[in-house]
Amino acid sequence: MPKFAAGVVKFQKEVFPGNASLFEKLAQGQSPEALFITCSDSRIETGMLTQSQPGDLFIVRNAGNIVPPHYQGAGATTAAIEYACVALNVPHIVICGHTQCGAMKGAMNLEGLNALPHVKEWLSYSKAAVDITNELGKDLDEHDRNLMLLEQNVILQLAHLRTHPAVAVRLARGDLRLHGWVYDIADGEVYAYDEGAAAFEPVSKRYAAEVAKHLALHTHD
């Protein structure tokens, strides 16, 4: 804890003063560009990964970057999705998985989680991804099977996301885009799902035209 307290002191003395205008603006409200749903894993640093600033991302984190299918009950993830879509009107939702995900390893062996009943129940929302991987990836080595599971889980959670009424309305209206990502911790690469091709490809390729346009607009910022 002393490490984090020292970090707060450094933030207050060195970081905050240099960004006073940004925080003054943020104090008036938020208008994030995306809802970013990712894993609780401590190795995932969303600001560093996306090079975003405070106010850019509305973030939901949980074990396995899971989105439960919509049901008549309140849950933290469900409430955050509804708020982001209706109150904040975010134009993008990203579901971001990652390599070496302990939650996905647990999902592959739910019977080994009897000592963690809440975790076991939560990870059951990834069962279809596990079943697909067991069927289609039965001849793959462990590395490729794990990668297939990460990708299938992201695809599955995107499908769950579409069952939420707030998301469905926005998609029907045509003013919301869904994105599925997998982040490779070891090499920093991020792969984005191309629904048309039913495959993941590097973000630099998947969003090449949009990145080029963004860079052209902000070259002199």
Can you give a write-up of this model?
It is a single chain. By secondary structure, this protein is an alpha/beta fold. It has a single domain, classed as Carbonic anhydrase (Beta-carbonic Anhydrase, Chain A). It is 47% helix and 16% strand. The protein is built from eleven helices and six strands. It has helices at 2-15, 20-26, 46-50, 76-86, 102-107, 117-123, 127-136, 142-161, 165-173, 203-206, 208-217; strands at 34-39, 57-62, 92-98, 177-183, 190-194, 199-202. It has a six-stranded mixed sheet with strand order 2-1-3-4-5-6. A hairpin with a 4-residue loop joins β5 (190-194) and β6 (199-202). α7 (127-136) packs across α8. The mean pLDDT is 95.
Offer a concise description of the structure.
By secondary structure, the chain is of the alpha/beta class.
Q: Which properties best describe this structure?
A:
Beta-carbonic Anhydrase, Chain A, 11 helices, 6 strands, 16% strand
Class by alpha and beta content: alpha/beta
Order of strands, main sheet, comes to 2-1-3-4-5-6
Enter the CATH topology name.
Beta-carbonic Anhydrase, Chain A
CATH superfamily: Carbonic anhydrase
Amount of beta strand: 15-25%
CATH architecture: 3-Layer(aba) Sandwich
Order of helices and strands: HHEHEHEHHHHHEEEHH
The percent range for helix content is 40-55%
The average pLDDT value, as a whole number, equals: 95
Broad CATH class: Alpha Beta
Task: Characterize the biggest β-sheet.
Answer: 6 strands, mixed
**How far do the termini sit from each other?**
37 Å
Q: Please give the count of helices.
A: 11
Query: Which of globular, elongated, flat, extended, rod-shaped describes the shape?
Result: globular
Radius of gyration: 19 Å
What is the total tally of β strands? 6
Number of domains: 1
